[in-house]
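Changelog-adjacent note: as of this version, every example in the card shows the full chain rather than a window. The one below runs 578 residues end to end.
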Amino acid sequence: GTVAAHGFINLQPTLIAALTGSDGGDLQWLGNASGTKDFMHFQLKAGDHPALKGWSSVPSGSDADLTAIWGSGASDVWAAGTGGTLVHFDGHGWAAVASPTRRTLRSLWGRAHDALWAVGDRGTMLRFDGQGWSEQPSGVREDLFAVAGSGTDEVWAVGAAGVTLRYMGGRWTRVESPTIQTLRELWIPPRAAGETAPPEVWAIAFAGPNLRWQGTRWEAMPRPPGSRFAVFEAWRAPDGDGATLALDRCGTVYREHDKRWVESGGGPAALQMVSPDPLAGDRVGLPASLVGLTPRAGCDGTQGAPPVLRGLSSAGNGAAWAVGLGGAVLRSEGAGTWEPVEVPTQADLESVWAGESGEVWLAGGGAVLRRVAAGPWVPAADGLGAWAHAVGGRVDEVWAVGEQGMVARWTGTRWKTLPSGTTLPLRAVWASGRGRTFAVGGQEASGAGGARGVVLRFDGRRWSVATTTDAALRGVHGADGEVWAVGEKGTVLHFDGRRWSRVEAGTHEDLNGVWVGGRNEVWVVGRQGTSLRFDGRAWQPATGLTRNHLLAITGAATAIRVAGVNGTLLVRPRAAAP
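Full-length structure tokens:
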């Protein structure tokens, strides 16, 4: 959706990482819009109509991707991000603060200006006591995505593989969870003064049931059929029985009733139905992040919202598959048209691999699905030790790669992980057999350190590091004994069968995908519609395609296909000149 009404400016929601506000209407969001890594500030004073005010850009002083924000007031705001970055706003400006970790921080929450928590990758847990940040033992190695508390000494954290942690009595303990799906958000309803009942806690998943804590255990709350909780916000009903309300990404409001969700109205006018006065957000309990929100296009049932497509694969029969955010899956039979395919997940899919035998694999957003021939889609994440970003392989060899350097091979019934030689996140895998299986990944640049990229090779017995570079890598493919890898800042690496070397392709745009048709046919795609072809002698641009970011590329005997943001799907005959 776009934030457009009541004085808000239009923004791409994928660039907004977090939003926070004080009771006076002082709102701030942060992200990496247009690569600025700046803050946007929106000030709304009592008595002012929001249409009279607007956002202004505030430099953060950091080049890190910022992913979390929290503040106790207009002169005390914290933000965190990649590489363990921590920055603080004192009412006058932002300044970097020493961090005890280099791992990405995903969430911030505080009870007061001198009592804050931050959580992040590989179980990272930090605490601020008013003087400085220190690392605390969490007892887990899973990535943590959210931290929140009830305003007392009780704090919760949730993350990958359904992990839930509870802080009481001065220490963190793991609490049994009824799900293995990744939990991405926490919501704890505000408590009335003097209330003594145990606080209610909600843990929100991108796929699978949400969880509710009512004092002694977690209870799974299945999603309503057809709901689109890709974005989930919850709040208390302003009247009646004070039931919990939830809003999905298309503006539909659901009411919790008898341990299940019941549709309670909504649609494009849902927010105005709940709170027609944008200044009434605090009075009725509507989260500040929802005031003035308009649902994304395609929620009226007439046409689907353009998905962000992140993965492509060509099948041996001329068909092709595309996957993307919100569980988007499309299939083409080769005639140039794409048809949506229903899958049992709303996870943000990043990768698809279609084998010649009709087998299809999907991965991303904490989910892995498999379909054999024309059979049903079946969850297939058993044995994975971390979040899988990509799947790939050949007829008798299927691999998954992901966070914490995870590599795993499919045994026919489950995954078997193998040592990889790295802890960097892996983003792509390509297999040709004969001891030539490669995986790439890395850590992007942050305020706490430079970027790092890695290429791994499996020789038929074990994985090892083949080469490293100073840029995170995002794609790998090969043919005719040669392998190519691409990544951020226009990075292109080439393996000629003996050694890896860096190649200048004539661009500094981030490159997201590569496809190799032969020694004299290499295609790469990336940001701002970047599309380049190497003909064995020089790189040449394929102009006039699109300005949308291109995220994936695949090829077959007769055609090359490209996918990206805003539902971009392009195809060109292989015989065509660039």
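Structural remarks: The first helix runs from residue 270 to 274.
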